[in-house]
Amino acid sequence: MIEKNYQPADIEARMSVVWEDSLAFKAGRPDRRDAVPFTIVIPPPNVTGSLHMGHALNNTLQDILCRFERMRGRDVLWQPGTDHAGIATQMVVERQLMERQQPGRREMGREKFLERVWQWKAESGDTIINQLKRLGASCDWSRERFTMDEGLSKAVIKVFVELHRDGLIYKDKRLVNWDTKLLTAISDLEVQQTEIKGHLWYLRYPIEGKTFNPEDPSTFIVVATTRPETMLGDTGVAVHPEDERYLKLIGKNVVLPLVGRKIKIVADDYSDPEKGSGAVKVTPAHDFNDFEVGNRHGLRRISVLDKEGCLDLLDNEDYLRDLPEGASQFAEEFNKVDRFVARKRIVERLESFGFVERIEPHTHMVPHGDRSNSVIEPYLTDQWYVDAKTMAKPAIAAVRSGETSFVPKNWEKTYFEWMENIQPWCISRQLWWGHQIPAWYGPDGKVFVAETEEEAISHALGYYVEQEVITPEQGREMALDRNKREGFITRDEDVLDTWFSSALWPFSTLGWPEDAPEVQRYYPTNALVTGFDIIFFWVARMMMMGLHFMKEVPFSTIYIHALVRDEKGAKMSKSKGNVIDPLNLIDEYGADALRFTLAAMAAQGRDIKLATSRVEGYRNFATKLWNASRFADMNHCAVPDGFEPAKAKETLNRWIAHESAHTTREVTEAIEAYRFNDAAGAIYRFVWNVYCDWYVELAKPVLLGPDSPAKDETRAMVAWARDEILKLLHPFMPFITEELWEVTAKRDGLLALAPWPLKPAEPSPEQLAMLAAAAGPTDPVISPALVMPIFDHADFTDPKAEAEIGWVIDLVTQIRSVRAEMNIAPATLTALVLAGASAETKERAPRWTDVIKRMARLSDISFADRAPDGAVQLLVRGEVAALPLKGVIDVAAERTRLDKEIGKADADIKRAESKLANEKFVANAAEEVVEEEREKREAALARKAKLLEAMERLKQAS
To answer: Which residues are annotated as a binding site for ATP?
Structure first.
């Protein structure tokens, strides 16, 4: 017997244990040996993380796909795991050491510090995995991987060494995003652009050969900058090649104020004649755009800041070279001064010499580290790089050819734009936690890249013997005696960017580079579900690595989901205080309600505006299903052995079979097309409207009546339709459906492993041949019974039953609508006249008279050739049904009420349209505020249309 009340927490805890104990989610189950594989790799969450709403959406959608395919007979591998999250994890442990007043990592040393990090990972690193289990994620948890585990580390080292050997990994001095607090390069994804109210300084740079005079514009050129402190590293001034103001100055020099260095005026399209003075200073070592301008014109790169963001001038050979006599005094004065202190002092010095033309307030975006919150510096430093441009070419071609496709397709444009303008990928980080770069340096700085230290030593000894730096005898002695070669080579201290190891995720998790059978069976994967923000950082890099090392794309479909925002459309952030914690929602409403909410709102290309009320609404939906199942159970509804719904005799029962088949097809096709919201909408309508509101209600007279063959059939059909619902709903709401399946179906086996309702038809020999040709030699033999239902499938339809029951439903629905519009009290019974009814209607109406009268609050149903005067006419499936309302309602009072409501709607429309017509409002208001006004307008327009429709009906009753 089903418990009286639906209690999500009890069900979720119990079902989680049932699934785990039965190994329901394990890939490679014996019963799926001959099944076609279906593989998804989880976007590995940071080991430091906890479940946020983005994780909840992402993993809900993946789980829907995995449960769906598992029920369709596929051998599903949903590969779980976590990312070591270099900076984040190192910061967590360092903060922990500081809070406990223990020695820091520098005092502790690398080896001891890493032991501490591994200890923290063992104690706290599984938090998010347990939270994903609470969400209902059906991963094969027995295969959980970690980007720093032994197997994945082996893959990372092999990839680095092979790419270096192929010339695709190299060391170079380039600009990187530098965090002056964490003292490491960081990726673009770890940089947050923050709007800052600052200043724009217009500086006068004297033209060489002319006596500088602040009052004489012919003696100087004006440049504008937001960063006066970096001017010390200027090596050029750029003007547009077609800017007539500066044509005669191109190729000449200016004298850098305060410094005295002569720098060239160059012509470059980067300079915009419409902005500022049209001339820009070029600081190649401190600006990414300037770096490219400098490369085009062969300008020197002079870095004037150190790693901590202080001026570095005194021992800086690049800065001091070619300076006029006496300039070193300035270097002494400003050396090791913090960049922001230096800015103020440099501006004061420039003003004292007349080099500042003017200062304007200026609001602009300044990059900040997302973890340190310090201003990020473009910093010139030696780092390891991947030749991303070369590796991107096959990845671009794979998407263009359709080997891999994006859903929605418009994201392909973004992918191509990024990939076709790709820059070298900086893969080194100045951290200790991570994959240490497998590179060693000899005494002269020569680099030796190898998979092991022993291999690197062997290469180094051979090289230095060949170069006659050491003798062959010394080489042999050092090879045999570790003590004699101690310190001969030293390992690179840097670690690899976290994205480097996660780029290998689709195949490293399967056991590569070992010849593991899982690699052959489960690679390439089928689908990747991820957010748009990591298309470049993760998706593109998996494409590059997969094609280079596996010679196949890592996934055939990339589904990109949108953001989860708050109910007003604002992006969630701690600073705004609008973050919704999914774990709190699970605690209050259950995981099923949260999952269904996210799926129902996951329309392709549209952000989700999440309101707690929506989650509460879908918890009520679960309760509705629970109560309907309990009603069926209490009325002894069960599916007898051998029951065939297609052979049902009762019209109502054949109708529910017809509707069930239609919904099954609708849900199946929507999931296949990644239209999760459409699939959720279809099953919601079927459960709430078709099954609960209509079928169960229409079946009650039979169920509560005397025993009969019709009652037996209806009991069976109520239970059968409920079971079909549980199957269709399971991918979305796994906990409640598994519980109800266990309690009511009383069959062996889990719902998670039960067959999907839509059975594939037998494929033709041609189709089987096509699938066999697509499969590799190591793939299993494809069983026709397990082939995906891409073929035409058998489908139950009964148009006659649909026409009859559909007529009853439409008639009752329209009558209820009119009663609501006209404010007719529930206790007031009205008459109904079926005007000019067809023979079919005359034949079916008597069968449903009692039901229609009860459900539509009618006093009588009669037939007439035409509608009576003063009756509201309804068009129901092409025939007229009339409600005589004369004397039932006060027409004049009702007209007054509707006029008033229409006036309110007009006022709301006018107010919203006035705001939206205001260009200043649209330009300056937050995106979510503008969208809210659009929604208000649309709601008011819809409300007005309904009121006008009611007014037209009222005229009929006059």
So the answer is: 574
